[in-house]
């Protein structure tokens, strides 16, 4: 039953088709909305930001499809035609392929930052503000705060009494 469940429902529907359809439909709705915004009388800045957001959403969906589909396809294949451990070379190749495709699948969770950096100038400005102005200044203050002041030594009498006691010995 696990083979049938994973072959016909889990990997094709829950992991593959359903998220792709939902993401694609919402990205198309966003694209359609931006097309209607162009026709309305809105400030140019707002239209530009809406176009940037739509471009980011569309690229995110494309990246999602490209990064998730190979792993789901391989898993459907591996569940239906498992490699036997008695053939070590085929088993090792299958495990290697699964590891590579799983790594590509996990890139899906990291790639948002890079997609947003590439397609949005506003996001780039915000990242620069946070990294340079806030994080770098805190790190610089924490790591490189040295006291470069010359202070007078107020313990002259304590030294003089120590020198006198050494002379007496």
UniProtKB/TrEMBL annotation:
- Which Gene3D superfamilies does this chain map to? Rhodopsin 7-helix transmembrane proteins
Q: Which residues form the G-protein coupled receptors family 1 profile domain?
A: 1-116
Its transmembrane ranges are: 6-31, 52-72, 92-119
Question: Which coarse location class applies to the principal site listed for this UniProt protein?
Answer: membrane
Keyword annotations from UniProtKB, A to Z: Membrane, Transmembrane, Transmembrane helix
Keyword Transmembrane helix in the entry? The reply is yes
Name the domain of life this protein comes from.
Eukaryota
* Subcellular locations according to the entry: Membrane
Q: Say if the entry is tagged with keyword Cell cycle.
A: no
Q: Which GO terms describe its cellular component?
A: membrane
Identification of the protein by name:
G-protein coupled receptors family 1 profile domain-containing protein
> What organism is listed for this UniProt entry?
Adineta steineri
Taxonomy of origin reads: Eukaryota, Metazoa, Spiralia, Gnathifera, Rotifera
């Amino acid at each position: 039953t696990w083979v049938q469940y994973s072959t016909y429902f889990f990997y094709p529907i829950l992991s593959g088709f359903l998220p792709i359809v939902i993401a694609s439909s919402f990205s198309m709705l966003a694209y359609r909305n931006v097309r209607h915004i162009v026709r309305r009388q809105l400030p140019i800045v707002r239209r530009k930001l809406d176009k940037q957001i739509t471009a980011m959403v569309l690229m995110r969906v494309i990246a999602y499809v490209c990064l998730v589909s190979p792993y789901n396809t391989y898993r459907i294949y591996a569940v239906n035609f498992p490699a036997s451990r008695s053939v070590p070379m085929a088993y090792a190749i299958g495990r290697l392929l699964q590891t590579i495709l799983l790594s590509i699948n996990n890139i899906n969770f990291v790639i948002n930052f890079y997609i947003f950096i590439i397609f949005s100038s506003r996001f780039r400005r915000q990242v620069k503000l946070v990294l340079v102005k806030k994080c770098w200044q805190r790190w610089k203050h924490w790591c490189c705060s040295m006291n470069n002041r010359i202070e007078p030594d107020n313990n002259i009498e304590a030294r003089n009494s120590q020198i006198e006691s050494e002379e007496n010995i």
